[in-house]
Each structure stands twice: as C-alpha cells, then as structure tokens.
Amino acid sequence: MYRSVWLFVVSFFATAMLVNSNPNVEQPSPSALVDVSGFSLEMLLTNHDILHHMVRELREDALEQRQLIVENQVQLKRSLELLAALQQEANDRHARDSDELSKFYAESRKAIADNRIKQEQSVDLLAKIQLDMQRQREEIVKNRAECSEWNSEWQKAIANNQVQQERNTGLLHNLPSKLTELKLELSRQREEANRYQLTTEKHMEQLNGDHKQIRKALVNIQLDSYGSCKEVPTKVSGKYKIRMNENIAPSEAYCYQAILEGGWMDIQFRSSGALDFNRNWTDYRSGFGTVNGEQWIGLEKIYQFTKEHKCELYVGMKDFNETYKYARYDAFAIGSEAEGYYLKTLGTHSGTAGDSLRYSEGSKFSTPDRDNDANNNNCAQTWKGGWWFKSCHQAFLNGLHRNTSVQKEGKIEWYGFSNEWRGLSFSRMLIRPLD
Ligand SMILES: [Ca+2]
C-alpha cells in the first residue's frame, strides 16, 4: 500500500513541475490548455483508480492495524498484569528483604554490643595482666637479690666444707687402724655377750627346772604322794605313795634310789624265792607280794604309769653264784588290759646281760589261766608263771626260784645272762620316767 501512495505522489508532483517549473516556456494558449487538460484528465482518472485502490488498501491496512491494536491491547493488558505481578513480587521481596535486613541489623547491633563488652573485658584483662607482670617483675628483682644472698652463703658453706674435707682426709688416714681396733673390741664384746647369754640360758633352765620341781613338791605335799620316785626328795630307798596316773588314787610302791642317781620304781623283785609267782590273771593284773619285799606291782599300775610317763627299764639280775648283771632299755611301755597288756615299747638295749627280752616285744601277757601266747600249748602253764610269752620265751623272770641249768624246767631265766638256761636267784625290774 505504501508503495502505491508513494507512486501517486511522485507522478502528481512530476506533472506539476513539467507544467510550471520551466521559466523559458511560454505560457500556453487556450488551445494548448485543452490538450493539456485532456492529458491531465486522463492522468487524474488514472490517479483516481490508483487512489481508490490505495484507499481500499489503506482501509484493509486500517483493519489490520486495528486488529493489531486489539491484539496489542490484549498483549499490553497481559504485560500490565505481568508487570503488576512482578511489582507485587518485587514489593513482597522488598518487604521480606526489609525484615531480614532489620533482623540482620539487630543481630549486627547486638554483636557489636557484645564485641564492645568483650573488648572492655579484654581491656580489663590486659590491665590485670599488666599489673601481674609488674608484680612478677618486682618479684624477680626480689628473687635476684635473695639468690645473690644465697650464692654468697653457698660460697661460704663450700669453703667450710673444703676445710672439713681436708680434716676428714686426715682422719681417713687413721681410719683402717681405728677400724681394726673397733672390730677387735666388737669381737670381744660379742664373745662376752655370747658367754653371758649362755650363762643366762643355763640360769633360766635351772630356774625353770627348780620352778617345776617346786611346783611338783607343792602338789606332792598337797596330795601327800609323789608323781614318781624321781620326785622323792630324800633319795632314800623305801616305800612311798606314788600316783601311777593323775586320774587314779595313789598306791604304795618301792622307790629304789641306790643306782644311776635313783628315782627308779620297783615293778618286780625276786630275791629269797619265798613269794609264789605261779598265779592267775587277776593277781598279775592287781599285783601281789609286799611293797618292800618280793613283789609283782601289777600290770594295771605298769600300764597306767607308762601311759602317764615315757619310761626307761632297768633289769638287775644275779645267779646263784652272786654274779650280778643288768640289761637296760631306753624306752618301755605296755598296753591296756583290753590289749592283753602287750609289750608295746622296748627301746634300745644296753648292759652286761644280753638283749633277751627283745624276743617278747609285741607279745601279750599270759598267765596259766589266760593263754595269750603264740604257742600251740599254754606257755604260762608249762613254765609256771605269768609273762609276755611269744612261742614261749628268751627271758622269763617270773619263773620258779630254782638253782638249776636244766632247760626244760620252769625257773627264773634270762638267756643272755650267760648264754645258757641257767636259773637265777635274784631279779629286780625297775622303771623310771625319762622326763
Ligand atoms: Ca598258746
């Protein structure tokens, strides 16, 4: 359409210029004007068509423009709505940003305030530190002064020590000889102390022994009897009341004080041969004879006494030629009646007569009426007396008082007296406590 308008305007003005612009052209005559008017009319008609066409085109253009305007208005409206929304969003964001900013400012202000407080505290602390440093500095100065004093004192002490050391060096030269002297003196004193200790121990033992004896003597006086013949103070042989066991009543016994420092108790005595020893179990259990003469003290008393005291045994014997021999055992004890009064303990033998009682060790006591022996026959009946028979005997002091050497006759025998079956005239069995 613009192209048509442009073409019209150019053709119109070109025509006008052809007519009027050339000053050399003479003004047309009226006939010429008809020619010119014919040309102009034709041109006008043409232009009219063009114009009509142009108007139509313009109208279409206007319609298009209007359509476009409407579209643009719609577009514009949308744009405005969008803009409003953007504006709203921008406002909202601004509002939010403002809140956050306010918060940020508040926090910042608080942080600044806190920092200020901390800064003030730091300043205070710094002031304190400065004060401390000042004090420390003063102390260091003081310490330095004290150190200086100490140093001078040390110097003095070292000097004194040196003097002392020199003195000690002098003393050390004499030390070995002094030490030797001291060692000798010490050794002498030690020996003396040992001697003194030994003496004291002996005295103590003596005192203890004396004390024990005094106590025993007091008990003996109180009970009007003795625990054993060892406790008899007179050392005179004879008849005394002896407590065979502290739990039973005292009984009379013969204390023999003539040998080996005395203190022996007679449990069997044969001399004249007047007393009959061919007796039953009851007699051998209870004892028979006279205390200060021939006797058998009794198995129960021997059992009670050897249970109460650890004892030794001494056997003195004579033959009919008055030859005296003895056998000694360093331990002796018998069992109870329930055990057949067996020869329970027989210690080491010594003496001039042989160890003939050894054969009976461990054997029960037998009497003619009680056969406890290991023989098929009754040894007590055969040999006529009570004894610790095994399959009969090597020693038998309760036999018949006979002066004979015939083997198969019952008699007082101790084979080891002369290594033959010689009859003995005398026997004494003695026991004594070892403690
Ligand atoms: Ca028998």
Question: Topology, pairings included?
Answer:
Layout: H1 2-20, H2 30-223, E1 238-242, E2 251-256, E3 264-270, H3 281-286, E4 288-289, E5 295-296, H4 299-308, E6 311-319, E7 324-334, E8 343-346, E9 349-351, H5 379-383, E10 395-396, E11 413-414, E12 424-433
Helix pairs in contact: 1-2
The protein binds calcium ion.
Calcium ion binds at residues 371, 373, 375, 377-378.
Kindly describe this structure:
There is one protein chain. 22% of the residues are buried. A hairpin with an 8-residue loop joins strand 1 and strand 2 (251-256). The chain has helices at residues 2-20, 30-223, 281-286, 299-308, 379-383; strands at residues 238-242, 251-256, 264-270, 288-289, 295-296, 311-319, 324-334, 343-346, 349-351, 395-396, 413-414, 424-433. By secondary structure, it is of the alpha+beta class. The strands form 2 sheets. Strands 1, 2, 3, 4, 5, 6, 7, 8, 9 and 12 form a 10-stranded antiparallel β-sheet that branches. Strands 10-11 form a two-stranded antiparallel ribbon. It starts with a helix and ends with a strand. The site of calcium ion (CA) has 5 residues, from loops.
Provide keyphrases for this structure:
14% strand, 10-stranded antiparallel beta sheet, disordered N terminus, alpha+beta, 12 strands, binds calcium ion, 435 residues, two-stranded antiparallel sheet, 5 helices
